[in-house]
Amino acid sequence: MPALESPFAHLHLIRQPEQQNEPLQAFDAADEYLLNHVAELALPVNSRVLVLNDSFGALAVSLASTMQVTSSTDSFLAVKALEKNLVRNGQAYDAVSIIAASQPPVGPFDCVLVRVPKTLALLEEQLIRLQGQLAPGAQVIAGAMIKHLPRAAGDLLERYVGPVQASLAVKKARLLTATPQNLGPFTSPYPSRYSLDKPAIELLNHANVFCREGLDIGTRAFMPHLPSNLGSARVADLGCGNGVLAIASALNNPHAQYTLVDESFMAVQSARENWQAALGNREVAIDAGDGLAGQAPDSLDVVLCNPPFHQQQVVGDFLAWRMFQQAREALVVGGALYIVGNRHLGYHSKLAKLFRGVEQVAATPKFVILKARK
């Protein structure tokens, strides 16, 4: 894979999760553009730099040897990538201060570098949290590939930070530089909430939660077909989002034991708060993680999953396939994985390669609900 060259470092970076013959690199032209721009700013050594949404550590690792870098991300996989890439490039794994996007950063920061996220609500929340955290003369510089840079990103920067200057395009990337003004105070519109009839619960959703304004149609199709009569089964909600599948299942299975995991810190934060609201102090494990990678083999009876079909802006079934493999490892013999998926994704044939029996539980014109038994 090509190295990332910048005025700060020559880096060899990997993506997370790793896969053999990785077709994609761990940085892009927007990372290069941001780093070249920071070099032109000639910040003093040890300046405090906040990096937001650094997918695999390209920005933070590049700057770590000369700046005091804080990296904030909503991705557990991004944290793992940053730590691994620091070590791969001769630095301590903790050379960068890392905070989950579910926690506010604490400044003052001399410079803020932003990779524009796919979910603009996350960007809005992050910009609101910059209030009072910027040093005098600080700049907020956002970068993205032009095809992933909506006009609304510039509008948010202007609303919450200050006047915005757009750069010329370089290698199909563009920067937006905002000059901070005292525009606040602002109150965050997040978390948002919506209610369900069956089960009768209210769900809270932090800014980066998938479908935070209402139940997504895949989950809506899945809900009536969740397994029942589970007794004291050990159940995992893999890619739990706001926790709705596990909560609905737990309400119908009072003796089952639940584990919820998601790679989004904001999803996990939402799931914890929703579980508490719906089920009080009922015992549960809810954690950010790399799917079921840390789950002991043969330790689960049931896995529920509404798998993602993208990682940031990259669309594909790699993450879903990996989740299916993790589920198979974690399930006991005779245990079952229940999933919902778009018909056209062909999950039935993929699951048949891993599990001894795959059956269609239900279907809608768009979705299928499948049960795969180990």
Q: How would you describe this protein?
A:
By secondary structure, the protein is α/β, with parallel strands linked by helices. The protein has 10 helices and 20 strands. It has helices at 29-41, 58-63, 76-88, 120-128, 151-160, 217-222, 244-252, 265-279, 318-330, 347-352; strands at residues 4-5, 10-11, 48-52, 68-73, 97-100, 109-115, 134-145, 164-166, 173-178, 192-195, 202-205, 234-238, 257-262, 285-288, 300-305, 310-311, 314-315, 331-342, 357-363, 367-373. The strands form 5 sheets. The protein has a 7-stranded mixed β-sheet. Helix 7 packs parallel to helix 8. The relative contact order is 0.10. It comes from Pseudomonas endophytica. Its EC number is 2.1.1.174. Specifically methylates the guanine in position 1835 (m2G1835) of 23S rRNA. It is found in: Cytoplasm.
Order of strands in the sheet with the most strands?
Answer: 5-4-3-6-7-9-8
CATH superfamily label of the largest domain: Vaccinia Virus protein VP39
Q: How many angstroms does the end-to-end distance come to?
A: 37 Å
CATH topology call of the largest domain: Rossmann fold
Q: Give the averaged pLDDT, no decimals.
A: 93
**Second rung of CATH, namely the architecture of the largest domain:** 3-Layer(aba) Sandwich
> Strand-and-helix sequence, N→C?
EEHEHEHEEHEHEEEEHEHEHEEEEHEHEE
Overall 3D shape:
globular
The counted number of beta strands is 20
Number of domains: 2
CATH classification class of the largest domain: Alpha Beta
Based on helices, strands and strand pairing, what is the structural class?
alpha/beta
- How many DSSP H or I helices? 10
**Helical fraction:** 25-40%
Percent range for β-strand residues: 25-35%
Major sheet size, sense and barrel closure: 7 strands, mixed
* Radius of gyration using CA atoms only: 22 Å
Unreliable stretches: none
